Queue: 2 jobs
Job 1
Amino acid sequence: MKTIWKYPVLIMDEIWVYMPMGAEILDVQEQQGNICLWALVDTDKPLVKRKFRVFGTGKPVDLDYDELTWEFIATVQNKHVVWHIFEEYKE
């Protein structure tokens, strides 16, 4: 069954999220002071571990582009800080 799930995004350098295989990221926004990610998921699929990185505006972005590829997901404002979320994927 397809449905939309919400995942909290912790403000950490690296975030690992378990979601059904093939989940499609729909949006990332602030909700009641917390950063949340919404994804369209197929609940019949097995869970897989996905890696995200969070960077504040003006902070170093240390993404290793030699071995990994990073996809920009969203920019979201939380209080007085602007966060930029990227997801790792291997080609």
Note: The chain has a mean pLDDT of 89.
Job 2
Amino acid sequence: MLDKIFKFIERFFPAKYRWILNHDGFKRYFANTGWMFFGQILSLAFSFFIGAWVARYLGPENYGAFSYAIAFAGIFGFVSSLGVDGILSRDLVAYPEKRDDLLGTAFRLKLFGGLIAFLAAGITIFLFDNSSLIRILVLLYSLIFVLQAVNVISIFFQSTVQAKKNTRATLTATFISSILKIILILLNQGIIWFMVVGVFDVIWQSLGFIAAYKRSGFKIKTWHFDRRLAKEIFSASWFLMLASASYYIYIRMDQVMVGMFLGEKAVGLYAAAVKFVEIWYFIPSIVCASLFPAIINAKKTDVLIYKKRLKALYLLMTGISVVIAILTTILAPWAIYLLFGPQYLEAIIILQIYVWSGVGLSIGWVVTQYFLSENRSRDIFLYNLLSMLANVVLNLILIPRIGLAGAAWATLISYSAGPVVVGLLFLFVSFKDKIYEENFRKN
């Protein structure tokens, strides 16, 4: 099947570049990326259409309360990861013989972080919100932070180019949750039950990862917590954790601030637009996660090839995200009306603005991977911190003045400014490297 796909693609490739398609390494990473895309497309298709149905069923106000709780709790998501994921992925590629120590140590760290995140979200919501419904929703959603510790297995499969196993677990969990949500709608149940299903979605997925890991011949009981390794991971990841803090805050803060300034119905309208855009966010995350091992390996052998791959990834992400933004801007009125219904028509203009933030987000993924491959955790933190501060300040200025559109503009500007500047600087450096390489060959 894969060979047929490559023969088809060869027709559109210039002859001098067709050797790339026949390279075993390229085929391996292409197949891995293909499985990740296939899984995410199906999973997001289920999640998006069922989610739109849920939004129509709940209405903007109830859907706003649901989305506000997720956004509020999501701010504390950085604590649950402790910045471990990126370091774990890198070290599993570099030191495969340390698999059990790395997975066992990372699992224990993430479990501890998940408990802290759950407590932090629970205490904060009781201090800042008097709504019993919102409190219950936040507490339920925060359980996810503890359950996600098992996801170290998915990072292992990504680092060893076995995305097919992650895909099966994700699709199974999504299918089960989608069926349960349909049942809840037909039984006319409330939003608390929908949040419960969201929590169980993570449980199904975790069970799928564990089953896949065991079927691969590995045993979780061989995992080992290494205190010295834990210190090494945390010392390397704490800047990443701070960077994640900035990232989680600035991707969630807009919905939280919309709720504070404009109320829960406004959050529902805004969340509908955000949900439509977020279905495309899997593209940069999957491409970067799948190709990151290839980029790391290139760095070990040839710096120029390493930089060329980063540049190609940057241009690819930019091109894809721009095409998606243009199509979404044109189709927004029909998409919102057909999927969410006439009660969400105010979300059209929000979608048409917000979708362009995906360009900056895609470039930002590449920039983050570049910093990570260079062990520049501090730069990732500063990069995300500045973006977060810009987002908060712009929301404070624009939401009171122009309402929901202000939140969308704040997100677009804050998402785009940093990635575009850093990306242009990287392209400039790559251009200088190319000139140097040509001069070197001439001499």
Note: Residues 296 and 373 are 7 Å apart (CA to CA).
